[in-house]
Amino acid sequence: MDLIQAILIAIIEGLTEYLPVSSTAHMIFTSSFFGIQEDDFVKLFQVSIQFGAILAVVFLYWRKFFNFSKFDFYIKLAAAVVPALVLGKLFDEKIEAVLGNPIPIAIVLIIGGVVLLFVDSKFQNPTVVTENDISIKKAVAIGFWQCLAMMPGTSRSAASIIGGMQQGLTRAVAAEFSFFLAVPTMLAVTVYSLFLKTYEVSQLKGYELLLEGNNFKFFLIGNAIAFVVAVLAIKLFIEVIKKYGFKPWGYYRIIVGVFLLIYFSLN
Questions:
Q1: What's the rounded Cα separation, in Å, for the pair 189 and 187?
Q2: How confident is the prediction for the chain on average, in pLDDT?
Q3: Of 51, 62, 9, 60, which Cα lies nearest the Cα of 231?
């Protein structure tokens, strides 16, 4: 991977991490297009630059994250992230196997797009209008919904937001809780990828891969770019979802999914 490729992947991560379009799918398709998807550092890079996106949420909602007087906020996030931690560890190898095949990911993109076309009409009578009204039980339920995103192409954001709406949250509250939930979820995935996971080809840990060549420089640049772009994307998403709902993202997923399905079927 060269610097230009690293920058493009980081921009894509920042743009898509909090949108219901699957950042993983977009990064996999991009790296596959460049012919670098099988490289161990590329796999690490695609996960580790999520740290920049995490910081974007903390930056935008810093009053929420550093308001230690409301301890129940942290309890809700901790309860909601447990399903992903447990199931993610159990199915890590199966998920890794799917990441190398863009065809099923493109199909999931399309299916998810169709689902998003009908989400707004399905959940029209929300009962939870503020984050304070989210119970521990609802938080855990949203956490299980988030686990659907273990299938690449689903979108962690889409799964957790739809899960929130199914639990009675308004679109805006579900979106914000999805952002909050992303912080412990992606932080755990990043730490696992950097310090615990051994990569198949190189048989190295993530932090050992960072020490090779320009990898650490790419890591820093990628996270910085993902942070800046994610800040802008989050603001855009909140405005679009309030005004237009999920349909624009549904049409986008279907169009991109069909294009990529055709492209990878012919190549």
A1: 5
A2: 90
A3: 60
**Which tokens is 202 given?**
């190189």
The residue written with tokens 């209008």 in the block is 129
Give, in degrees to the nearest 5, the angle at Cα 245 between 58 and 62: 10
pLDDT at 97 over 70: no
Rounded Cα gap, residues 16 and 230, in angstroms: 8
Angle at 1 between CA 224 and CA 15, to 5 degrees: 40
pLDDT in the model for residue 99 = 62
Check if the beta carbon of residue 116 is closer than 8 Å to that of residue 250.
yes
Model confidence band, residue 124 (pLDDT cutoffs 50, 70, 90): confident
The answer to whether 44 touches 194, Cβ cutoff 8 Å, is yes
Asked whether the predicted pLDDT for residue 120 surpasses 80, the reply is yes
Burial label for 203, CB within 10 Å (0-12, 13-18, 19+), is exposed
Amino acid in position 172: A
CA dist list (Å): 239 to 18, 38, 65, 217: 13, 37, 22, 34
